[in-house]
Amino acid sequence: MTERLFSITVIGETVITLTLTSVGGAASFDDNKPSVTENSTIDTVIGTIKGEHQDITQDMTFSVEDTQNSGIVKFSNAACVTKDEKRVCTAEVMVGATLDYELQSQYTLICQVTNTAGKNTVEMFPLSLIDVNEAPTKIVYSEDQVSVRENINGITLGMFIVVDPDNTDTHTYTLANDGGGKFTLTQTGQLSVTDGANLDYETQPSVDIEVKVTDSGHLSWSQSFTVLVTDVNEIPTKVDLTNNKVLEMSAVGTVVGNLRTEDPDKNQTFTYELTDNADGRFLVEGNVLKVSVI
Ligand SMILES: [Ca+2]
Ligand SMILES: [Ca+2]
Ligand SMILES: [Ca+2]
To answer: What is the pTM of this model?
Structure first.
């Protein structure tokens, strides 16, 4: 007896197989495990969705959703051919929305294929985002204001803290401008006044510095800050008299001269008193030295 083999195809009842491949995409991945690099622009091709149908009379359309309903992936229109006695339809899988690895790194795609007869098949595919290093975007200071009191050398101030889209990135801090050598910064962002800074509110009430921060992938961000030098009341350094000679027998109330003061602080007022009035011979009124007794 000759054995006969029969192949029976039940038109319209056959299963449609769905496969998601990296064909045409920027990154290669195993079939049905798509991946795409974060920050890829919209319309970037990720790969190809392919539907196969044993009924060559049936065309297919594809649609996609994801469990987060983010619209992260979209399909192009399908193109269909008959090959090896199958109907094969393909569409490009493209980026449909912003891809931010740090926001979400895994998605589940719900892909549906519908044939001409209205029959559906649904497949779920995991989509992985690939992280890329991104540059730091900002530097903030640990206090409300970068400030320091004048005259204090070698003091430790606050910390600079970087903002980087990559959550686990590491960073090194340097001063691109150290304010003329008045400030230092540790690699971890700790700001200090140098030993020889001699910050003086009266001559330089603010000092500009620039902080540069570099991440583990050598991407950097620089930002300028103004350090406010705050005023401290300082001791007067000198008192003198505009005239220090007076004739003998001068009348009571005769003006000898005016007292003047030198003081590091500007716009200050002074009061005077005589700690030694030469046995009552002189008195001071305001800043005026007068004869008190003939
Ligand atoms: Ca990243
Ligand atoms: Ca980074
Ligand atoms: Ca001062």
So the answer is: 0.77
